[in-house]
Amino acid sequence: MANLVIVGTQWGDEGKGKIVDILSRDADVVVRYQGGSNAGHTVINQHGTFVFHLLPSGILYRGKTCVIGNGVVVDPASLIEEMDGLQAKGVKIGRNFVVSERAHVILPYHKAIEKASEQSKGSRKIGTTGRGIGPSYADKMARIGIRMGDLLNPQLFRRKLEENVAEMNTFLERLYQMEGFQVEKIFQQYRGYADRLKDHVADTTVLLNNAIERGECVLFEGAQGTHLDVDCGTYPYVTSSSAAAGGACTGTGVGPTKIDGVMGIAKVYTTRGGGGPFPTELLDNVGGGLQERGKEFGATTGRPRRCGWFDGVVVRYATRVNGLTSLAVTKLDVLDGFKEIKLCTGYRYNGTLYKDMSADLQVLTDCEPVYETFRGWATPTTGLTSYAKLPPQAKRYLARIEEVAACPIDIISTGSKREETIVLNNPMAPKRRRPMAKSRRKR
Ligand code: GDP
Ligand code: IMO
Ligand code: MG
Q1: CA–CA dist 261, 326 (Å, integer)
Q2: 222 within ligand 2 shell (Cβ under 6 A)
Q3: What is the Cα–Cα distance from 363 to 299, expressed in whole angstroms?
Q4: For ligand 2, what atom is nearest to the CA of residue 14?
Q5: pTM of the model
């Protein structure tokens, strides 16, 4: 049995939801470790299309324990809406769903501050999802945050809320000339949420570590992606949490020695939701083609996603900082019919060749990507479930992705549905994985 972290290798929306859904079958527990309702994870199965913002994508399976870890910031209204929506579709959410008492809460003033801050930045805005994520994590780090457990204690909640609203109102009124918030209104609203959620709130560090102790299998579902991680990403054009694999430990209270593997999810091209540098972005009709064929519109915001070729520098960096043990590559079918396909292996800037991701946004903004060009394939890959049936050009392209990303591919996704998948190696299986080169030779 394996305890596996799933992490986005690019700027989010790599198809984590689909892969988590597939791997959840072999998991006992699925846990979200960071982010909040800025995430939009799509799962398509025989019952329809589901987009998860806070609930772990494993919730569709009966008998799995689903956990929101301490590293997540919870918007209770959004969570309740998601639970109600799923229950209306016949998904049972009972005692199998548990939220950490240590998870921080998003309050209405967080969204207001985010909106005002974004507006004040003008063209340098981050392009956030508007869910109050950044200000909620800022309160957590400033040690004034309100946690799920605090919501259950009316005296404590009121005291913290009074202090915070006083501070936030000063901020909103003086800095942004905006109207402040009323304590009583928020208090009553959130006490209602607490009543609804109280049976789901617990110490999830005990739950998770006990499960591991019993030999159960835990899947850690990352949101966003490595390059949106607050430490490792294209700062400041990032989200405010630890989206990279390290966040799986801090965001759940499970130690690194308990983790068996880290699977990185990578689209076979690149997309980006908000603002910030994007070296391989295509502003021409090739980018438009990727956007149209890949249906690249935000699952949370509905915004069109920026599109470009696969960036090997971006994914190799993800291999390094996450310690990836394997990759799942998604959306191969979207490249069907392209005459030629490009893959970036480095950046040229001011006469220097960069093989590694730069922390300097100027380099990432003004560099010239160095491309290798591949012939496309005429036979469609859509829906294929066997590696042997892939066109040779697609196999060559994928083999090069493995080399450039310095990581073996375990899963190839050829469509949005559960079954449209080629599983070369199941990382949740009890056996230890073999290096890709050897396993491919055997195939
Ligand atoms: P996540 O945030 O990483 O879970 O990804 P999103 O759900 O935001 O975006 C991925 C989109 O691609 C969703 O609409 C998925 O249904 C879809 N998708 C996932 N894998 C594939 C694939 O292999 N092919 C195609 N065509 N669509 C896919
Ligand atoms: P999933 O889990 C893609 C981006 C926003 C913005 C930046 C900061 O579906 O992959 P935030 O609201 O988090 O403060 O916004 O991060 N962003 C995402 N982009 N997928 C996501 O989640 C994202 N969550 C946040 O577009 O650029
Ligand atoms: Mg998404």
Answers
A1: 8
A2: no
A3: 30
A4: 10
A5: 0.96
